[in-house]
# Entry
Amino acid sequence: MKEIIASDFEKEVLAGGNVLVDFYSTECPPCEAVAPKLHSLEKLFGKEIKFVKIFRQGNRDLADQLAVKSSPTLLFYQDGEEVSARLTGGVKRSEIVRELKHVLGKERVSEIMKTQEPTITNVDVAILGAGPGGLTAGLYLCQARINTVLVDIALPGGNVSTTHMVSNYPGFIDPQPGYMLSHNMSEQTKRCGTTYKVAVDVTHVDLQKKEIIIDGQETIRAKRIIIATGTSPNRIGIPGELEFKGNGISYCATCDAKYFVDKEVVVIGGGNSAIEEADFISKFASKITIVHQFDQLQANKTAQEKAFENPKISFMLSHEPRAFKKVGDKMVVEVEDLKTKEMKTLTSDGIFVFIGQKPNLEMFGDALNLDKWGYIQTDEDMRTNIEGVFAVGDVGSKKYRQITTAIADGTIAAIAITREIG
# Structure
């Protein structure tokens, strides 16, 4: 991609034609993730769309003028005017193609996409999932000089990256911000030599053949596969939940608590995540009501004591939500008192749901042996029932799911593989 500076912007971007602009930064993992996607798309669309990049920190005045606040930010121009939504953060290849349709039209983009040639990448080990378990496996494997690729539909870090503070990770006296802990893990594994293919669409996985297709275009063939896809937040499954997800209902306090300064929120749940995240939200919100189905909280005692002492937090125990609604700018929760069966209404500015997790296994079909809760069964070396396929981290059947147990799983699987193919 051609690099330009602010003084080139009018000539290169505004003077006419079709242009994709990438505002990037250095030491920016999302920028590193999007760069190869832009490179491959430039090969396809370069005759009809100009691809340029601008170093955001070196061109701050232009970035401010265009209201570009984060890196990367992709802008799409046609004859000097922006013509589609901007893309930021962990941008996927499919998202870029979608926005290019606003520049060239759907039919032309479809015609060009049909000309792309599939590629094949051969590796020793493919790791699906870049949380602590996957990152640790990648670190051990690259140190053993085993050719490894790490694949994730999001950016590296897993759930740790959206955790406010981690207070029980060995080696750190003070609590660590989750995003920083996961960033350091990721950088360590990357610098060791593990190849990253992150913020991608996993189109198909064949565990028997050890093949993974990403972005509908690249086939990764491996000798071994490690499944480290982790978990996603459970949904309550009541009316309004899907409708207002991201528009009044959140599953990530680190991501969204900052939007509720001096406002009232409702937190659903009573386990460690719910209570610890409620404490974090209280740094912003003026009032928090915790709704929990049992008559006692399930969180650890330290978290409970802190919550009970917090004047901003109140509790509705033995209550369950039955529906979410939106009235103007307010979120309304209909809750049932499980003891009296009385229905009650809570009105707030937002809702946070923390009721546990479910394993991310949709891409694997029914090929794996699972326990009664739907987690992957493994042996002591993290092997699954499919030869050459391992599972580590929260996606596996285990009693405790912690960062440290995921790291242990990744270590064990990597050492077992090293002894097999090293």
